[in-house]
Amino acid sequence: MAIVRMKKLSLLATRSQKDEILHELMRLGCVEVREQNEILSDADMAGVLTRESSDAVEWRAKKTALSEAIKLLDRYVPKKTPMLTPRPEMGEAQFLEETELESALTAAREIIALDERVRSDTAEENRQHLLIEALTPWRGFELPLETNGTRYVSMLLGTVPATADLGALSTALTGALPESEIFEISSDENLRYLSVFCLRSEEDAVMPVLRDYGFAAPAFGAVTGSAQENIKSTQDVLEKLAADKAACQAQLEQQANNRDMIKVCFDRINTRVDVEEAAERLLKTEKAVLLEGWVSVPEIPAMEKALAGFDCAYELTEPAQEEYSDVPVDLRNGKLVRPMNMVTDMYSLPAYGSVDPNPLMAPFFIVFYGMMMADMGYGLIMMLLSLIVVTKAKPQGATMRYMMPLMGLCGVSTFIWGALTGGFFGDLIPQLIKLFNPESAFALPALFSPLDDAVAVLIGSLILGVIQVFTGMIVSMYMKIKRGETMSALCGEGAWFLVFIIAGVGYAIGQIKAALIAAVVVLVITQGYGKKGFGIITGIFGSLYNGITGYFSDILSYSRLMALMLAGAVVAQVFNQLGAMTGNVVTFIIVALIGNALNFALNILGCYVHDMRLQCLEFFGRFYEDGGKPFRPMKIKTQYINVIKK
After folding, report:
1. CB atoms inside a 10 Å sphere around CB 640
2. Fewest CB within 10 angstroms: 6, 200, 227, 291, which?
3. Could you give the CA distance from residue 217 to residue 158 in angstroms, rounded to a whole number?
């Protein structure tokens, strides 16, 4: 079906049935509701219509709460899921029920509250540990830390650097103030912890002496009592915090029983948010609502049947040519072509009204990929991986849903090319047989060898390149003729087709000089089309230079098909030979498997990148019109379950 036809939908309905209509359109998944800013820009219409309100903010908040709860459960109570486990399935009618939403939201709020308690307890634990760390050096000081002396004697607590000379400090202090005394309470690698006693009347004179040795008073804050007493009470607090965290953990483990319910409700609310956001794009009067959007043509009969039960009127119109840039694009193809959506999604969707490149690209992409990998063993691995993931995991995400089938198709092509070249993990089987029989000349049957027939492979690569480039030129001509630009098509790609035919015939009959003259005449006649004055001359010479160099370089780019086929085969054989040099079957298998695994990992990505380059530059550059906007209809959107429509 390629690019799905779209029609513009204008629907006027009673406001009381708005929610039901949106619900039905969401269930069908065929209508994209668009903004109606141009209507509101009309002063007359703006006086009649206003934007519809919705509960989108409230539902987004609920969605956020459920999402946060799921993340918290995964953090506190992780659940091990077997590899390749598919999503659970649920019928559409059951999914659209909202009976569990309040229970799920209540559970989510409790989970979030428990997490807040845990985080609060953790923060308090950190503060208590810091307090213990600060008090530990003072454990040997038995007086209350808030004590500052008596009526006549001042007591100062503080620290000096561990490198400070305590004897010199004591001598300096007692020399200046004989009634003063210093006691060392404890020390560590950084500091010495001191208590200093002096007459209260001499306290101001003591401080300058202490500061000369880096004396600094500790900050105990509101701590009262001795250090040992505070350490003991802090440890009691830590025990209570640990008990509270353990209780929270136990409650979170109980809440893990609600994990599946919360996930299902998250998907339900995710779908509801989509509907509420669509409602915000509607315009309203007191009694009616106006919806405008795009509907996919294949689903129009189903939509009309669904709307028949409502008090509404609607109009379907074909988009005008000038509206094509606003029309969303939906690509639909068969199973063999659908995986190519991965390529166009990464590049850019085709513009509406242009050509879907996927059916044209699919055979080239798959054949080119297989040609570059060209190994039966690698092809088998790709097919098996694809089959296992698709059948076991049943991926639903856009990337995996397309990537794994594409890998399988490329694996088939890789296996076929491997059979043609006789490659099975390089030359693993012949090398293995030689370990048992050094005189063996066994080799897998092959139509050609990348190493021995490199020139033939190069020529074949260039021929494939010519075929793809010509295909792109044909598509470009078709699109121009369809738009009424027949002369542009004939004087553009048509003229170059004629030049290639003349060159081929001239080479075949040995009249190269005559063919060259005829080709130049064709280009002189055609390449000035659409230009005036001196532009005709520049157009002719520019077309000659750009056309000749452009076609030559583009076709030459396809030599990478031969280069990657040759590189992959050589690397595999090198590792096999390295393993065979050990003369031991076990070490041979280990070295060969490691080497082929590295070669496979390198090539599965490298071949994809080079294949993408050929498609996006050499092929798409001929005809592709990008810039399409993806079709985003209201529909059931799930992240954790698969909804089965019955």
Report:
1. 16
2. 200
3. 4
Question: How many Cα neighbours within 13 Å face the side chain of 210?
Answer: 25
**Residue 245 is assigned to a structural domain of this protein:** no
Q: What is the CATH number of the domain that holds 172?
A: 3.30.70.2750
Start-end of H helices in 493-643: 495-509, 512-526, 534-556, 559-580, 585-613, 620-623
CA distance 144 to 220: 11
Tell me the pTM: 0.81
Task: Give me the amino acid identity at 516.
Answer: L
Token pair recorded at residue 610 = 């080079």
Q: What are phi and psi of 568, to 5 degrees?
A: -60, -40
Q: Dihedrals φ, ψ of 348, to 5°?
A: 180, 140
Helix (H) or strand (E) holding 448: none
Distance CA 528, CA 401 (A): 48
Look at the alpha carbons of 380, 382, 385, 391 in this order and tell me if their dihedral is positive or negative: negative
Cα–Cα distance, 67 to 267 (Å, whole number): 10
What's 245's DSSP letter? H
DSSP string covering 43-66: HHHHTT-EEPP-SHHHHHHHHHHH
d(CA 261, CA 8) in angstroms, rounded, equals: 38
- Specify whether the CB–CB gap between 421 and 567 falls below 8 A: no
CB of 619 closer than 8 Å to CB of 588: no
At residue 542, what is the residue type?
G
Residue 418's domain comprises 338-623
In sequence order, the 6+-apart residues with CB closer than 8 A to the CB of 238 are 125, 128, 129
Token readout for 255 is 């809440």
Instruction: Specify whether 345 is located in the same domain as 487.
Output: yes
Q: Is 641 within 8 Å of 95 (Cβ atoms)?
A: yes
Count of domains observed in the chain: 2
Domain assignment present for 90: no
Determine contact, residues 73/260, Cβ cutoff 8 Å.
Answer: no
Mean pLDDT by 10 residues, the chain (646 residues): 88 92 92 86 77 89 95 92 82 86 94 95 94 91 88 91 90 86 91 92 89 89 88 93 95 93 94 92 91 94 92 92 90 88 85 91 95 95 93 78 91 95 92 87 88 91 93 90 85 82 82 80 71 60 67 89 93 92 90 94 93 91 88 91 83
Sign of CA dihedral 431, 432, 435, 437: negative
617: exposed, middle or buried (C-beta count within 10 Å: 0-12, 13-18, 19+)? exposed
* Antiparallel, parallel or unpaired: β 328-329 and 629-630: parallel
Kindly report the backbone phi and psi dihedral angles of residue 99, in degrees, each rounded to the nearest multiple of 5, phi listed first. -70, -25
* Cβ atoms of 154 and 198 closer than 8 Å: yes
Name, in order, each residue with C-beta under 8 angstroms of 39's C-beta and a sequence gap of 6 or more: 45, 46, 49, 283, 290, 292
**How many other CB atoms are there within 10 angstroms of residue 248's CB atom?**
20
Contact of 248 with 118, CB cutoff 8 Å: yes
Structure tokens at 346: 């990464």
Structure token digits, residue 144 = 């209350």
Please list, in sequence order, all residues whose beta carbon lies within 8 angstroms of the beta carbon of residue 220, skipping any fewer than 6 positions away: 134, 135, 145, 146
Residue pointed to by tokens 């209570």: 240
